[in-house]
Each structure stands twice: as structure tokens, then as C-alpha cells.
Write a structure and sequence with these properties.
about 190 residues, mainly alpha, two-stranded parallel ribbon
């Protein structure tokens, strides 16, 4: 957040100093800046914030300052000044809007994924139905061939009746197969 243009204002008189040159002195520290620095900079190998990063960072820097005999004086922000309130509110709205967009995107991705899965299931069901129909049509062709063969032995009227009555086809197929078996056995007996 900070004060806009502060560093430009201080640039003519400001200079970098080594922390070692502050030995034996008191040093005012903006605690909120340190907290933000630690939470942003201290990451694990996955890129996630280290747990209690602000405490670890404070501890390390305080130890360093005490080692150098520098006395830290921490300054914490008070309430948000009126000038910053608008900025804070605008940033909060931006965060909320970004989170809402992320949620909407996640919902859309989930819906699209579910639709894709459903379409795959439907395509598989259609393919299975086509296979069943192909198998059924192959079965009907075999059955009609059997009826034609049986029709020669049963007579034309019986064959027409069998082809028109689909419910009796299976029974007729079984009877035809049995008749053919008996007929073949009879042929073998006559030859023997």
C-alpha cells in the first residue's frame, strides 16, 4: 500500500547502508512490510507459502539484528487511513471478482468434462446397439437361410408361415435342426 511517491521524495537524501553499520543503534522497522515480504518470498519446493513464514522470517532477522547489537523497534500500522480505504476496498473487490471468475471457470470446466463423459457413454451405448443389431441381422439372415432350407423339406406353405411368424422362428429353427439331424442319421443308416 504505502505512500505514493515517498521514495521519489526521499531519493535525494536517502542512501543504502549496510546493516553492520547500525551496530549499537535503534532501528525502526515497518512490521507489516516484513510480514508481506516473508509471506511472498518464503516458498517451499512446490511453490507454496511456507507455513508460519512471517514468524520464521521475523525470528531470523531479529536474531541477526541482536547479534549485531542493534535494537529493533517495530512499528505496526494502525487503522486504515481515509485515503487508503478506497484503495483497500478496490483491492478487496478485485480479489472477490477474481475468485468469482475462478469459480465460474472451474464450474464450466467441470460441466464440460461431465458432458464429454456423458457423450462418450452415449457413443459407447450406440456402438453396442449397432453391434447387437448387426448380430441380430446376421442371426435373422442365418435363420432365413435355415427357413429356406427347411421350406424345401416342409413345403412352401409351411415356409411362408414360418417366415411371417417371427415369434415362432426360434422354435422352428430348433425343430429344423433336429429334423436335419434325424435326416442325416437316416442317410447314414441307409448307406451303412
Amino acid at each position: 500500500m504505502g505512500v505514493h511517491g515517498l521514495w521519489d521524495l526521499l531519493a535525494p537524501v536517502g542512501r543504502r547502508v549496510s546493516v553492520e553499520t547500525l551496530a549499537g543503534k535503534r532501528l525502526a522497522i515497518d512490521a507489516s512490510i516484513w510480514m508481506v515480504q516473508f509471506m511472498k518470498a518464503m516458498r517451499d519446493e512446490k511453490g507454496e507459502m511456507v507455513r508460519n513464514a512471517h514468524l520464521i522470517g521475523f525470528f531470523r532477522r531479529i536474531c541477526k539484528l541482536l547479534f549485531l547489537k542493534t535494537k529493533p523497534v517495530f512499528v505496526f500500522d494502525g487503522g486504515t487511513p481515509a485515503l487508503k480505504r478506497r484503495t483497500v476496498i478496490a483491492r478487496r473487490r478485485q480479489r472477490e471478482n477474481a475468485q468469482a471468475k475462478i469459480r465460474k471457470t472451474a464450474e464450466k470446466l467441470l460441466i464440460n468434462h461431465l458432458k464429454t463423459m456423458r457423450l462418450k457413454e452415449l457413443a459407447k451405448d450406440l456402438e453396442d446397439q449397432r453391434k447387437k443389431q448387426n448380430n441380430a441381422s446376421k442371426g435373422e439372415k442365418i435363420l432365413s437361410d435355415q427357413i429356406a432350407v427347411t421350406g424345401r423339406s416342409l413345403g412352401k406353405n409351411d415356409a411362408a408361415l414360418a417366415s411371417s411368424n417371427k415369434g415362432n422362428r426360434d422354435a422352428m429353427l430348433a425343430a429344423s435342426a433336429t429334423a436335419n439331424l434325424f435326416q442325416e442319421d437316416g442317410d447314414e443308416d441307409e448307406e451303412g
